[in-house]
């Protein structure tokens, strides 16, 4: 009777874990930055047709180390890289001021043939701008120059567009100099400060991109409540500001551990009535967490806690310090870890929306100390973009080892197609099979599905029978859950 119970439980485990993540992956560096064409891409990409658009936060001024950043385009196969726009240099004697802005930390958004974005510095008073530019690089327009006063200053998160209105945040300024939520029309008129953060009661430094659902904006602050951050909601007219979750204080220098994570500085993603996000620090090991919270503020859950790093450079199996937003596809969340991984330079990961089945999809190979030169990049800082079965993203450092530069990359990761893992009970054994055309996969098992479950390699090596990799395991008294990993 025990064996009859264990087999269905094992099959249920397989159904849960085979969510399309055990795949044949191909990583490709699409572009390595050289400073003259941009440097240190800090943000996510946007896709139109077969063209990716993004920002580089520095470089672009003919090799000058005062390069103020670029807007770029590159095809999804890595061809046709173009600087769409290069931000102008500061005039002599003028502190961080120019006509267009500088240091575009944030990503772009696309509407028809127009890209909208923000620059953290520059503009008339040196505290940032909102801009628009055509996808062919023409028609650059400074829609608004921040003053650093009640309107805010230092916008460092991408905008969100609804009808003819752009919504965004600033890192500082506003009534209490702790940042703002603002709105502006796409033609540059009607700028409105919707909300000024007050630190203790509402948080401070709203660094992540807003998301919009109906007439409600959701976002995060990386400070507030003794500087540990919040998740908030606010109506598009500035009313009904609500703290949905306040992150608890850390303890235990130097790891700064807590139960939830802390200092969320990335945006959220919404699926149904649940918001998902990242916290780059805190958690059980001080290396950050992935979390979920309902849109009404209930049900906060620590989905995954990144493991502690050790050694020099600090390395681990899963990554550490997730600074970018998550993306969701079905029941799978994809994201980036800025540090950690096998070489200490970050990782790409996937995890189910219930927190199970965490998978390290790719580990960046550069060293964690300068120079970060390699072929793939290092320290991914932003959200990924999923198109079809391919992830696209940027790495903040690393790049072409042949030129000894470390200015970052644009990359893709093809997830391939998952081999089907089949399970068949046979007397006192269970037989696991998958196609022998999917080479390079390892059969792993665990005895529980906790977020920090330890996966071990199955001791029995597969053999090829009738065109299938085949493993025969005895059914023991302990239930096991299986998955394929590459």
Protein described:
The chain has one helix at 2-17, and strands spanning 26-32, 46-48, 51-56, 70-75, 82-86, 109-111, 114-119, 129-134, 141-145, 160-162, 165-170, 180-185, 192-196, 211-213, 216-221, 230-235, 242-246, 269-271, 274-279, 289-294, 301-305, 327-329, 332-337, 347-352, 359-363, 385-387, 390-395, 409-414, 422-426, 429-435, 442-446, 456-457, 463-465, 468-474, 481-485. By secondary structure, the protein is mainly beta. It has two domains: 2-10 and 421-485; 24-414, TolB, C-terminal domain (Neuraminidase), CATH 2.120.10. The strands form nine sheets. Strands 1-28-27-26 form a four-stranded antiparallel β-sheet, with no helix packed on it. Strands 2-3-4-5 form a four-stranded antiparallel β-sheet, with no helix packed on it. Strand 24 (347-352) and strand 25 form a beta hairpin. The longest helix has 16 residues, at 2-17. The protein is globular, with a radius of gyration of 24 Å.
